[in-house]
Design goal:
The complex is a heterodimer of chains A (about 70) and B (about 625).
Chain A lengths: L1 H22 L4 E2 L2 E2 H30 L9
Antiparallel strand pairs in A: 1-2
Chain B lengths: L11 H4 L4 H21 L4 H22 L5 H6 L6 H12 L2 H13 L4 H18 L1 H7 L4 H8 L3 H34 L3 H16 L4 H30 L11 H17 L8 E2 L7 H17 L2 H4 L8 H19 L2 H16 L7 H4 L1 H7 L11 E3 L7 H7 L13 E4 L2 H4 L1 H4 L4 H33 L7 H29 L4 H25 L5 H24 L4 E4 L2 E4 L12 H23 L6 H8 L13
Parallel strand pairs in B: 1-3
Antiparallel strand pairs in B: 2-3, 4-5
Helix pairs in contact in B: 2-12, 2-23, 3-11, 3-12, 3-23, 5-12, 5-16, 5-23, 6-7, 6-17, 6-23, 7-14, 7-16, 8-16, 8-28, 9-10, 9-23, 10-11, 10-23, 10-24, 10-25, 10-26, 11-23, 11-24, 12-23, 13-17, 14-25, 23-24, 25-26, 25-27, 26-27
Classes of the chains: A mainly alpha (about 70), B mainly alpha (about 625).
């Protein structure tokens, strides 16, 4: 569950980043497309954040008594 | 395969290697400072380039020899002892191909819709790998993807077929990187291409043969530190020189962009052309959004299961370490690639300042870089790396002649053209920096090419050694036989790919894309299915791989050898499938990967259902339950 949710969120974030770059060409921030700024600056942080969050959630899940940490 | 060495002593060569990165970065900067002083004393530029090359060779040879071993547990899985810092740094180097580093800024400069896909694609690949494949591969205890598939399905045949698929993708990547190394070395260091390719093969062999995964991790850690310093150093220099924020990844050099905006506004009002569309070799597409998203997904799916990426995770200490390795690698890859838009912006400003108002007679004072790079041919499309008024120019007289013979002809942005990699490779010349800047960037691009070659070569040797040959009969001979086979495969593959690179002049970028098509269309669905679908069995895996390989092979055959779109094999006509709608203007490998993915999934699902369910609950538990026994022992290789 954690892995699938993370993978889907990453796909949406990456596709959204590309779409923002390719379509928001009329909105310029610092003379560059706003979407470019979002993609290049925010996307790595979002993707890496999701990976670290999933590692944390998995560690918490593994420690839950009774469930024996079934990978989800 | 059996327990080869059960010595639990931690691998100090890797666990103690965290400080390598900062030491290499500091050493590179000190070296650059010393060379700048020597240049001021009159050191010729060629000597500077030779010194940068020696630095690169020494940086590869020394850590590789330090990592030498005769233990399969060291060679194949680095004794599961790679620290997070070392593994993430080495993985980042494997992801940063030299040609991406060389051309990305040019793609931004030219406004290519694919530019952002080349940044988001590798990061998406690492994220997908962290979620879907890497921690489970590590949890299984398998040494390689082929080893994992063989254990998961209890089928040597399934593992062997995957090893062959991995080898096919690896050979294509090595072929493209060897060719690139030869072309870059010829372009930048004026070395004969054949000699450079042979030398690159020897360097890769030197990096991998003595220490295997240990050697690859150490060498690629050094390469990443060097590459990041050599690429970002000149950019930070330019940021400070322009008075902008000295972190080029942030705000893209705010002051530079503001100045570029002012200049372009004035040019528009006066009716003059602007810089941007003068870049040769930048892909444009009619369906920009579709092409960019497709390329992003293609790179994400292709890279996430590529052997040179997955080869890093067996060295992690546990599944959590594998996940975090990918997380840190995302940030490190972004650290380098996210600087490309700033480089494009800085270059644009320096070009405007250099050429606006310049007459053809003054070319040597305002745009001498053009004379230096005009005589060189692009490694991607063989066009001149720079030309003026449509002609190659080497001196002022040729520049005047090229622009109609009038020495007072005022050069405009429309009179200049250059290739995509010129923006990066000529950066130091355009910025009027000391010659060491050019030397470092040239060495960084070559280093990036060698890094992916290192990781790929190791993955071929390790996958083939366990996947294809029968095991040795005697237990005592098993370990050394395993190591001998891996090294033998490695030497054979390096020699073969060097021969391909010398003898067959295929465009390296095209070859690379077809390798990624194998990753996206075959390897990724097989590995994801093996981890996540408990009904999948060995027949499904083999049918999927065979179906995907057949579809991809036909597509590649027609695209490579039959330009008309039709071919025949033993009299049987085969026809190329049409490109997926919206993807006509990008590499045909992307469409081929989509068709291959469909064939792989169809074969995988149909064969698994038709042959009945296998009792593989224990294997699924071993992959996904933290308290269960692994499929293979920790040091079993």
């Amino acid at each position: 569950m954690i892995a699938w949710a993370g993978a889907v969120t990453c796909l949406v974030a990456a596709v959204g980043g590309v779409a923002a770059y390719a379509t928001l060409t009329d909105i310029l921030l610092l003379a560059m497309p706003l979407g470019l700024l979002l993609s290049v600056l925010i996307l790595p942080v979002v993707l890496a954040g999701l990976v670290f969050l999933s590692a944390r959630l998995q560690a918490l899940n593994d420690r839950r008594p009774g469930l024996s940490g079934r990978e989800s | 395969m059996r327990q080869a060495m059960a010595n639990p002593i931690e691998d100090r060569v890797l666990s103690g290697a965290t400080q390598i990165g900062p030491i290499v970065a500091a050493g590179t900067l000190i070296f650059a400072g010393l060379v700048i002083l020597a240049e001021q004393a009159g050191l010729p530029r060629n000597i500077v380039f030779v010194m940068a090359g020696i630095l690169l060779v020494a940086g590869i040879a020394i850590p590789a020899i330090q990592a030498r071993t005769m233990s399969p547990a060291d060679w194949m899985v680095a004794r599961r002892g790679a620290s997070l810092a070392v593994n993430a740094t080495a993985l980042s180097a494997s992801m940063l191909t030299g040609w991406t580093v060389a051309t990305l800024a040019g793609q931004f400069f030219g406004g290519s819709p694919l530019a952002i896909a080349w940044i988001t694609g590798p990061m998406l690949a690492l994220a997908l790998s962290a979620f879907m494949i890497a921690p489970f591969l590590r949890k299984s205890g398998a040494a390689t993807p082929a080893h994992f598939v063989a254990r998961r399905f209890k089928s040597v045949s399934a593992g062997g077929i995957l090893a062959l698929v991995v080898a096919a993708a690896g050979v294509l990547i090595l072929w493209s990187q060897m060719r690139l190394a030869g072309q870059f070395a010829h372009l930048l260091f004026d070395i004969d291409q054949r000699m450079a390719i042979i030398f690159a093969a020897v360097l890769v062999g030197l990096a991998i043969l003595p220490g295997g995964l240990r050697g690859m991790l150490r060498v690629n850690t050094v390469i990443f530190a060097f590459l990041a310093t050599a690429y970002l150093g000149p950019l930070i220099w330019a940021s400070i020189d322009l008075g902008t924020f000295p972190v080029p990844q942030l705000f893209f050099g705010h002051g530079a962009l503001r100045d570029v905006g002012d200049i372009e506004q004035q040019l528009s009002q006066l009716g003059f052309a602007r810089l941007g569309g003068q870049v040769d070799g930048v892909a444009t597409a009619d369906h920009a959004l579709t092409a960019a998203i497709a390329m992003c997904l293609f790179l994400g799916a292709g890279l996430c299961a590529m052997p040179f990426v997955l080869g890093h995770f067996p060295a992690s200490r546990d599944a959590d370490g594998a996940r975090k390795t990918a997380g840190w690698a995302i940030l490190l890859v972004a650290l380098v690639l996210a600087a490309a838009p700033a480089l494009a912006a800085f270059t644009k400003l320096f070009l405007y300042r250099g050429i606006l108002g310049l007459t053809s007679e003054e070319i040597e004072t305002g745009a001498s870089w053009l004379l230096v790079w005009s005589g060189k041919a692009s490694v991607f499309n063989s066009l001149p790396m720079a030309h003026l008024c449509g002609k190659v120019v080497h001196d002022t007289a040729q520049a005047v002649a090229a622009c109609g013979g009038n020495p007072d002809y005022v050069i405009g942005p429309a009179d200049i053209r250059f290739s995509a990699e010129t923006i990066t490779l000529a950066m130091a010349d355009i910025f009027s920096m000391p010659g060491i800047g050019s030397g470092l960037i040239a060495a960084a691009v070559l280093a990036g090419t060698l890094a992916i070659a290192n990781a790929t070569a190791f993955s071929i040797g390790s996958n083939l050694s366990g996947g294809l040959l029968r095991r040795a009969s005697g237990k005592d001979r098993q370990s050394l036989t395993m190591l001998f086979r891996a090294r033998l495969w490695l030497i054979a593959v390096l020699a073969g790919t060097a021969w391909l690179a010398i003898g067959f002049e295929r465009p390296p970028a095209d070859t690379f894309m077809w390798a990624l098509a194998i990753g996206a269309g075959i390897i990724a669905p097989i590995l994801v299915g093996a981890i996540w679908w408990d009904r999948m069995n060995a027949y499904g895996a083999m049918a999927g791989m065979c179906a995907g390989s057949a579809v991809l092979a036909v597509q590649a055959w027609v695209a490579w050898f039959e330009k008309g779109g039709e071919a025949s094999v033993y009299g049987i006509p085969i026809k190329d499938l049409p490109p997926v709608p919206g993807l006509e203007d990008i590499s045909p490998a992307v469409s081929a990967a989509i068709y291959a993915l469909a064939a792989t999934l169809a074969g995988l699902v149909l064969a698994s259902y038709l042959t009945g369910r296998h009792d593989n609950a224990a294997a699924i538990d071993a992959i996904r339950r933290p308290d269960s026994e692994a499929l293979a022992g920790e040091l079993e290789v």
